[in-house]
Write a structure and sequence with these properties.
Helix content: 40-55%
Strand order of the largest sheet: 3-2-1-4-5-6-7-8
Bound molecules: NADP nicotinamide-adenine-dinucleotide phosphate
Structural class: alpha/beta
CATH superfamily of the largest domain: NAD(P)-binding Rossmann-like Domain
Shape: elongated
CATH class of the largest domain: Alpha Beta
Largest sheet: 8 strands, mixed
Length: about 290
């Protein structure tokens, strides 16, 4: 895993995007993006405002990162070039209502709110607003996220670059059309949960065969991490890597046969498909402008 060390920031340092940024909703994802933005030196801490309804949370962030904080959502938006919407889907409408009167067409709005469409945000904020919709995942909290970005029609190429750089600060980024974000949700948005189940089951397998839980956990986690790293670094298709570790008549082929007879691959394909379908359904319900 990529390790990033804490660094000291100086007034004269160059910052890659050097724009003022408001992070609306400073929970798991908002805080992860904040950390990434500061570590990647995209903007100096004094140009970042974290906004949340929870003052205790803001106090911790202000102490840790020396950023500005406020519970006043309008003030946060007015002071910023880029507005990152990181609230829960059920609170988005309230947040948009609050910023509607202060948002300007020169600002860039980036939403990580699951299921909420660009058209919905545009309808709430105004037709000419530049809006980027993203689907990140929880691994952004450890700088190993997988995020997909879809751009609204008013997002300029320069703004696209800015949005990409923010999510690259906490992992890998792809760009997709907005229609594909449901599939992204079913794959990499919900995906960490699938992999946690795989890790959990591997741990239990080791325990069943007599390994201590501690040893089995360490080996299982590292096996998943190492295998994924090898796929990424080698650029090889996973089937080739699998063949390379499958000796004729050996242990691995026996385990693969067992996994195939229980339909492991079909199960995972079905899981992505059903999660995608559910994302589409939820999106339809959620995007009604009241
Ligand atoms: N977590 C994931 O894996 C993941 C993956 C992809 C996308 N997302 C999306 O990311 C968004 C945030 O998720 P999260 O896990 O970071 O949620 P979270 O930890 O609950 O963070 C949301 C934060 O927003 C605050 N908040 C609520 N209303 C607000 C308002 N009107 N103005 C300012 N702040 C407000 C909440 O305060 P309180 O806690 O006091 O209510 C909370 O601190 C969600 O829309 C989710 O769909 C999450």
């Amino acid at each position: 895993m990529q390790k990033k060390k804490l660094e000291v920031y100086h007034e004269h340092e160059e910052h890659h995007i050097d724009r003022s940024i408001a992070i609306i909703g400073s929970g798991n994802m908002g805080s992860a993006l904040l950390k990434g933005i500061i570590h990647a030196k995209l903007a100096p801490p004094k140009k970042i405002t974290a906004c949340d309804i929870n003052e205790a949370k803001l106090k911790i962030l202000a102490n840790e990162w020396k950023i500005k904080t406020t519970t006043d959502i309008q003030a946060a938006v007015q002071a910023s070039d880029i507005v990152l919407l990181c609230v829960k889907p059920q609170t988005l409408s309230k947040a948009l209502q609050a910023i509607k009167s202060v948002i300007r067409s020169d600002q860039l709005v980036i939403s990580i709110v699951a299921g909420m469409r660009i058209a919905y945000i545009q309808q709430m904020l105004g037709e000419r607003i530049a809006i980027v919709r993203t689907m990140p995942n929880i691994a952004a909290t450890v700088d190993e996220g997988a995020a997909a970005l879809a751009f609204g029609e008013h997002v300029s190429p320069a703004q696209q670059k800015i949005a990409i750089s923010i999510f690259e600060a906490v992992g890998d980024v792809v760009t997709v059309s907005e229609e594909q974000l449901d599939a992204v949700t079913g794959l990499s948005g919900s995906g960490p949960a699938y992999i946690y189940m795989v890790i959990e089951a591997l741990i239990d397998g080791g325990v069943k065969m007599g390994l201590s839980r501690e040893i089995s956990t360490k080996l299982s986690v590292q096996t998943v991490l190492g295998s994924a790293t090898l796929v990424k670094k080698s650029g090889l298709h996973p089937a080739i890597l699998r063949d390379q570790v499958t000796t004729p008549g050996g242990t691995t082929i026996n385990a693969i046969h067992e996994l195939e007879s229980h339909g492991l691959r079909s199960m995972l394909i079905d899981a992505v498909a059903i999660a995608t379908k559910r994302s589409e359904e939820l999106s339809k319900i959620m995007n009604k402008v009241s």
